[in-house]
Amino acid sequence: MNKYLIIASWVGLGAIAGWGVAELAGHEGHQGAEVHKGEESHEGHAKEPDGHDDHAGETGHEEHAAQKNGHDDHAKETDEHAGEAEGGHEGHDEHAGEGSEPGVIPDSLLAGAGISLDTVRAGDVARELVLPGRIQHDPSRVFTAASRFPGVLKDWSLQVGDRVSAGQVVARIESDASLEVYEIKAARAGTLVHREARPGQAVQAGQALGEFAETGSLVVDLQAGPSEVSRVRAGMAVEIRAERDAAPVSVRIDRILPSVDRATQTRVVRAKLADAKGRFAEGLFVKGSVQLESVKAPQTIDKRGVQYRDGSAVVFVRADGKFVERAVTTGRSGSDRIEILTGLRSGDIVAGRGSFVVKADLGKGEAGHDH
Questions:
Q1: Which of 230, 275, 239 is nearest to 133 (CA)?
Q2: Strand 237-242 to strand 249-256: parallel, antiparallel, or no bridges (unpaired)?
Q3: Which residues, in sequence order, are bridge partners of residue 121?
Q4: How far apart are CA 47 and CA 234, in angstroms?
Q5: Pick from 80, 59, 217, 201: which is nearest to 137 by CA?
Q6: What does the DSSP assignment read for 238-281?
Q7: What is the pLDDT along the chain (371 residues), one digit of tens a residue?
Q8: Full 3-state SS string of 89-152
């Protein structure tokens, strides 16, 4: 608020307060005159006019003095408050001038703010098709442990998630025919994923006791609709990302299954996924970015460096420790990089990852200007 408007407000309040005090003083003086007049009436009717006139004069003089004093006091208060208001406003102006200039972020603070820098350069722009999917055990790498003869299951202590090595004894069964106990061994190294029998249970010849999946042998089954299936083929590169995992894993399409899901009318696009580190788990939802084609573009930047303001694409060019907003025209977009048609020159340094932080910092300056 303008300091002159503040002063004017205080003066107005002081005038109103002064008027109230003066009116109160005059009202009290008038009441005192009436009381004194009543007392003098007992001394004689002849003296009533003179006494009343003298006291009326005194009362008028006191009332005038009260009004003057009230105005003087409040005028003083008005001047004091005006000085406080002016000083307070000047302090506000000084405070507003503090802080860094919008867009000025020192190099030492970029990493902490999650901001990376990128250079405008020629690069590959890969067009992609994003499909939803789910991690499954590789059906071709699943095996079972099964009884060879009818009998009673004596020992079967494995639990789901337990790992076994090739040739490890996993169960013992007492044969009904010979009453001898024979052993069941794991055919390959793997993890128990389903447990289908319990100790003491009677089992038949060939009955499955449990199902194992080879460790790290997974597939990702992507769901593709009719128009999408026609655009993909075996051998295409796919980047797999878990919903909460930003780092992708590169695989290739192994096959497209022929059957169509009756409910969704989609087909399975399957890719094999080697996961020796145990990063993925069966049943996990993922997204697969199928790389359809790759083209060369003369000017590209990190795709994360493009922001939008009022529906138009902008990037933030860095020079001398400061980011400046620049309007751009974008072209073809890939999984990581995007083509820039106009607005930048090769070699320009721009914000990449975390560009939204720069946008917010520049927006802070606009909000302060509006205020």
A1: 239
A2: antiparallel
A3: 300
A4: 127
A5: 217
A6: EEEEETT--S-EEEEEEEE-S---TTT--EEEEEEEE-TT--S-
A7: 433 333 334 334 343 333 333 343 344 444 444 434 444 444 444 344 444 444 444 444 444 444 444 445 444 444 444 444 444 444 444 443 444 788 899 999 999 999 999 999 999 887 889 999 999 999 999 999 999 999 999 999 999 999 999 999 999 999 999 999 999 999 999 999 999 999 999 999 999 999 999 888 899 999 999 999 999 999 999 989 886 555 788 899 999 999 999 999 999 999 999 886 777 888 999 999 898 888 899 999 999 999 999 999 999 999 999 999 999 999 988 878 999 999 999 999 999 999 999 999 998 756 555 55
A8: HHHHHHHHCCCCCCCECCHHHHCCCCCCEEECEEEEEEEEEEEEEEEEECHHHEEEEECCCCEE
58 three-class SS: helix
What type of residue sits at position 174?
A: E
